[in-house]
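A quick aside before the break. I want you to see a complete sequence-to-structure record at least once, exactly as it would be stored in a machine-readable document. Don't worry about memorizing anything.
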Amino acid sequence: MTTAIPNQIAMSISTALATPPMTNRLGRALLITRRVAHDVSRHHISMIAAALAYSATLALFPTMIAAISTYGLFLSPQTAANDIEAISRVLPAPVAEIISSQITELAKASSSGLTAGALISIAVALWTASSGVRALMRGINIAYGVRETRRYATIRLISYGVTIALVVGATVVMAIATIIPPLLNALDIPGGIRTAIALLRWPLMVGVILLGLGAIYRWAPAKTPTRSNVLSPGALVGTVGLVAITQAFSTYVSKISSLNQTYGALGGVIGLMLWFFLAGFAILIGAEVNDALLNPGADTEDAAVQDD
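That is the input. The structure line, written in tokens, reads:
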């Protein structure tokens, strides 16, 4: 018995040394992929993403009202609307069409300045938009396999905070996309440097999305995986998924299939909800990746998420 144990240890060490590191990494990647695929099916992520798409559609226009009202405190509502419309051009065509038409009407009805009406509209918009955030919080709770134990007031405050952060993040993205080009035109900068700086705004916007998703994964759920931080692997996966899905969906609706031909006047709304569904699916996949990587030995049985 005394010689068997050292022999077993020696065999384990020799086996580990004989196994190439690349094989270990590949095996771990396959295990993580299998767990993510299993959890996506077991947690019914597609159904949760569909619920998120519904909630996001209802919350979109209140969020736009809040963004235009907030942005309009510093610039005219029409300028804010033009900036948001410029951002919407990178979205799929059906999504961009709905956003462009709505922000035109919102800009006409909005007024600049910090008025009581503006504050009330921002508050009402945040209240409505936070419902979409709370749906996302429930989805991430399920992906992490945790039960909601926080008080209703705490959930509400967190949902407001995340909603405000999303509005601020959208404002930052708008500023990056719309302020840099005219600023470069006003400055006497050589053409090559100007082009490089202009192209740099796109990685900056992706960076804002990466940080935003990381913050949501870190602070929105009731409990985060061990060793979790803002710059998490799931945030990277979610960001790449969002960018790839947006580009692929844009190509699909512009080159392959027209939703208006299939759904008629509802084509824009269908396209908007379909994009929200795919985006929500990508975000929830990122949460599942975080759970698989940062909690590899955790019990991932479905959690009954407490309704708020």
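Two observations worth writing down. Residues 40-294 form one domain. Residues 152-186 form the longest helix (35 residues). We'll return to this after the break.
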